[in-house]
Design goal:
Number of strands: 11
Bound molecules: pyridoxal-5'-phosphate
Largest sheet: 7 strands, mixed
Strand content: 5-15%
Structural class: alpha/beta
Distance between the termini: 31 Å
Shape: globular
Strand order of the largest sheet: 1-10-9-8-11-3-2
CATH architecture of the largest domain: 3-Layer(aba) Sandwich
Radius of gyration: 21 Å
Low-confidence stretches: none
Helix content: 40-55%
CATH topology of the largest domain: Rossmann fold
Mean pLDDT: 95
Number of helices: 17
Length: 447
């Protein structure tokens, strides 16, 4: 236990008593600031716009190296879909209205990696590859980046090693893009990583190192080994500005998608966005982007498993990455891949602290129930972690957040951010679905 005894922590933060008993909680962030009062973030809107330009430069490469991106002209993006039938199912089952409109941001459909990690992970590797290529006069920023798909470039990148620690999805995105560019890439997998993810990585030409412990231990081992190589580069999910910026570009794209659908967003018609949260990098990067783009009209909530509330504990206690859920006797056991994280990202959480509206936790059983309900109502199949945002509108409706912000409920545009699922093998998906179906038959009250 860091700094003080558990009962002192609970005395200072009574919500911790429920958190350590694995009860679902909703925490509203008292430190959320208006944009006009935020002056000192380590990144700004310029960084996000530069990140978007890098994606544009690499579009010609992506079309060539990953033909499945050709239909989007090499831009890795996902659709925004309204899900009215699911909205009704939620209202009927939970006996609570979802006021306003409910959308799903379909990042499970992102090409190449089938999860939100296609944004951050691929961005960070492309950024590194570009930097190396420019320093070594292989390309110039005005060139056609299809040249990255050449034997010359691949041969050059093969001198360099990339490492990453992962519970699965980050490893897939880093492994696939790095191997394609020609890097030697090693993915340090936590003990809970699924076999099919390891098999897929091996098939794509990445090395898989199986680690004994959880995600933090996989990161520690990967960091140590990778950085002992002078030509090694470690993608550090616990502290990465580049992952963060890769995610943030989603907000610029979402703005265009909303405009195309004629969906007005302003302070009277706000966006409420609910994102599944592991280290807090993807939801943090997106929240940062949304607050830059939509200002105070963007209200961002993170969703964590009751057994892995790492970002919630970091923000609640103000100790950020200095504390791990294990310090509070919480076991970090969840079937939500990508969310089984004991310690938050230092970089992302320091920013989220001022920007986000709150964090809620939910049980694994609810994730599977939502998975089944979404599949049945909308024929959309997600992995369990990716469903965590769907319960958000009702979780926030029972707090006093909406009244305190003086928002008309019927004007809210809710977006549940779906973070993964397309690469899950059909058999595995079938067993998720069956489990959810069984649970959906049992009466429950997740709100
Ligand atoms: C990684 C991941 C998340 C969470 O992203 P963080 O950056 O770890 O917070 C959510 N859902 C899925 C499916 C993921 O793979």
């Amino acid at each position: 236990m860091p700094f003080k005894e558990l009962d002192h922590w609970i005395h200072d933060y009574p919500l911790l008593d429920e958190i350590i008993k694995y009860k679902p909680v909703t925490w509203i962030n008292p430190h959320r600031k208006k944009m006009m009062d935020i002056h000192s973030l380590p990144v700004g809107i310029n960084d996000m716009q530069e990140a978007e330009k890098l994606w544009d430069r690499f579009a010609a490469y992506l079309v060539k190296a990953f033909p499945e991106t050709a239909m989007y002209n090499g831009i890795i993006e996902s659709p925004l879909k309204e899900i009215p039938v699911m909205k009704q199912v939620l209202e009927n089952k939970i006996k609570l209205p979802v006021s306003g409109r409910l959308f799903l941001k379909c990042d499970h459909e992102l090409p190449i990696a089938g999860s939100i990690k296609a944004r951050g992970g691929i961005y960070e590797v492309l950024h590194y590859a570009e930097q190396l290529a420019i320093e070594n006069n292989l390309v110039h920023p005005n060139d056609d980046y299809a040249i990255f798909d050449s034997e010359k470039c691949k041969h050059f990148f093969n001198q360099y090693a990339i490492g990453v620690g992962s519970t699965g999805n980050l490893g897939l995105s880093i492994g696939i893009i790095s191997a394609k560019l020609g890097f030697k890439v090693s993915v340090y997998m936590s003990a809970d990583a699924r076999q099919w993810k390891k098999d897929l990585l091996l098939a794509k030409g990445a090395s898989v190192v199986e680690c004994e412990g959880d995600f933090s231990e996989a990161i520690n081992e990967g960091r140590k080994v990778t950085l002992s190589n002078p030509k090694g580069y470690f993608v550090d999910d616990e502290n990465s500005k580049y992952l963060f910026l890769g995610y943030s570009v989603a907000a610029l794209r979402l703005k265009k998608q909303l405009a195309e659908k004629n969906i007005l967003v302003d302070e009277q018609h706000p966006l409420f966005v609910y994102s599944p949260c592991g280290v807090g990098g993807s939801p943090g990067g997106i929240a940062f982007g949304l607050r830059q783009v939509f200002g105070d009209a963007a209200h961002c909530f993170f969703a964590e498993p009751t057994h892995s509330p790492s970002v919630l504990i970091g923000l609640l206690t103000g100790k950020m990455e200095k504390v791990s859920v294990h310090d509070f006797g919480i076991d970090n056991h969840t079937e939500a891949d990508g969310l089984a994280v004991g310690r938050p990202s230092a970089f992302a959480t320091g920013i989220s602290k001022k920007l986000i509206s709150g964090v809620y936790t939910l049980d694994d059983d609810v994730l599977f129930t939502l998975l089944y309900q979404l599949a049945d109502s909308e024929s959309i199949f997600l992995e369990p972690s990716a469903t965590a945002g769907l319960i958000g509108p009702q979780r926030i409706a029972v707090t006093n957040y909406i009244q305190a912000q003086q928002i008309a409920e019927k004007n809210i545009r809710h977006i549940a951010w779906s973070t993964g699922g397309n690469l899950v093998p059909p058999q595995e998906m079938q067993s998720f679905y069956e489990r959810g179906k069984m649970l959906a038959g049992i009466s429950y009250n997740p709100v």
